[in-house]
């Protein structure tokens, strides 16, 4: 590495994907939200954003012998009112920290976000990464919430039954095998509705094709609560990357009109039993500290809590600055 050369910032090219993924892989605490540690997945993510017309920009800081840093901005059309927000990713290689590279990258992407008319920016940092947190707070980000990493050893699970009036629960696979009409279409509609209510965007680009692939990974561990033909709640578990004995909890949700009846508790209980029966040993998931009911269900089921992510937010409309060069 050249210690004196100032890394040059330039637009990302597809050929940089492997180097960006390698930067992410080297992160001691693992990736932040929406970061990819795999080049193919990174390029597929960008392609989906472009196909849907979302704002998406990537920059790299190139040192003589590789990448000193990488940054990305993409649009999240999620949340109440469909406000157009941006999500920011910044990663500087350890040897290049403390030289203002993140600040230069951020300045360019923040300017791009403003010119594109995005209302605000989100970003997150690992709770153990004190330097990243200091950086975020010095650059106009305020803490919005924490996303807690929750883990459960299935041998220690304490599943409770749901409320007395909990409706029938079936796996997606069983509903399909029984010939129930339009199972995928109805599951997708439910998933879309529930995503609107979670505290943070989980999936940025949502299409029926994406959903069919996503849910097809493990239809035996996608549980659906149904009532008189209507799908009203779901709980999705999927195998974790790189550990055949572990599962990741994806969305758990119940439609707003049916909440508080023990349906999510019943879904959680059924999913833990199904996971155990399928031979898995552990489950991990992320729950925002603003999501009191989900935390209550998770704690009652025996999940333990660990340092996770600090989620930041900053408005782009409060103090417009025109001093950022074009991306
Ligand atoms: C989280 C969610 C799934 C809960 O569904 P639900 O069917 O209402 O849940 P249940 O009725 O089974 O249980 C809710 C529990 O939370 C508790 N709870 C509810 N609000 C609470 C609050 N403000 N503070 C503390 N506990 C609370 C309830 O008392 C109940 O616990 P109890 O059975 O011990 O009394 C539902 O609110 C939802 O779909 N939210 C949107 C999707 C989401 O955020 N999913 C999680 C992220 S993936």
Describe this structure in words.
- It is a single chain.
- By secondary structure, the chain is an alpha+beta fold.
- The chain folds into two domains: 8-140, Aminopeptidase; 150-307, Aminopeptidase (3-Layer(aba) Sandwich).
- It has helices spanning 17-25, 39-51, 101-115, 130-138, 172-177, 183-195, 208-215, 263-277, 292-301; strands at 8-11, 56-63, 66-77, 84-92, 120-126, 142-153, 169-171, 222-227, 230-239, 246-254, 282-288, 304-315.
- It has a twelve-stranded mixed β-sheet, sandwiched between helices.
- Strand 3 and strand 4 (84-92) form a beta hairpin.
- Helix 8 crosses helix 9 (292-301).
- The chain is elongated and about 65 Å long.
- The relative contact order is 0.16.
- Mean pLDDT is 92; it is low at 320-327.
- Bound molecules: coenzyme A (COA).
List the helices and strands and how they pair.
Layout: E1 8-11, H1 17-25, H2 39-51, E2 56-63, E3 66-77, E4 84-92, H3 101-115, E5 120-126, H4 130-138, E6 142-153, E7 169-171, H5 172-177, H6 183-195, H7 208-215, E8 222-227, E9 230-239, E10 246-254, H8 263-277, E11 282-288, H9 292-301, E12 304-315
Parallel strand pairs: 4-5, 10-11
Antiparallel strand pairs: 1-2, 2-3, 3-4, 5-12, 6-11, 6-12, 7-8, 8-9, 9-10
Helix pairs in contact: 1-2, 8-9
Bound molecules: coenzyme A (COA).
């Amino acid at each position: 590495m050249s210690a004196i050369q100032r890394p040059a910032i330039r637009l990302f090219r597809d050929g940089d994907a492997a180097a960006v993924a390698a930067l992410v892989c080297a992160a001691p605490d693992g990736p932040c939200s929406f970061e990819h540690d795999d080049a193919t997945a990174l390029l597929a993510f960008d392609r989906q954003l472009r196909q849907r017309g979302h704002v998406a920009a990537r920059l790299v800081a190139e040192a003589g012998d590789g990448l000193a840093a990488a940054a990305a901005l993409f649009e999240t059309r999620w949340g109440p009112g469909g406000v157009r927000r941006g999500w920011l990713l910044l990663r500087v290689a350890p040897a290049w920290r403390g030289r203002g590279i993140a600040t230069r990258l951020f300045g360019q992407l923040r300017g791009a976000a403003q010119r594109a008319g995005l209302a605000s920016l989100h970003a997150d940092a690992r709770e153990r990464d004190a330097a990243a947190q200091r950086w975020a707070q010095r650059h106009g980000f305020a803490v919005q919430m924490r996303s807690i990493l929750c883990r459960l050893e299935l041998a220690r699970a304490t599943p409770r039954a749901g409320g007395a009036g909990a409706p029938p629960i079936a796996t997606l696979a069983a509903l399909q095998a029984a010939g129930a009409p339009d199972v995928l279409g109805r599951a997708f509609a439910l998933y879309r509705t529930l995503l609107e209510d979670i505290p943070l965007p989980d999936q940025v680009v949502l299409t029926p094709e994406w959903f069919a692939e996503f849910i097809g990974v493990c239809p035996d561990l996608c549980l659906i609560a149904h009532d008189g033909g209507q799908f009203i709640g779901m709980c999705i578990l999927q195998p974790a990357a790189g550990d055949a004995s572990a599962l990741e909890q994806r969305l758990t949700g119940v439609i707003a009109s049916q909440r508080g009846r023990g349906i999510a508790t019943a879904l959680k209980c059924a999913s833990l039993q199904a996971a155990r029966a399928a031979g898995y040993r552990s489950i991990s998931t992320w729950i925002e500290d603003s999501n009191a009911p989900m935390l209550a269900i998770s704690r009652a089921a025996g999940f333990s809590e660990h340092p996770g992510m600090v989620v930041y937010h900053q408005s782009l409309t409060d103090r417009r600055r025109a001093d950022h060069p074009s991306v």
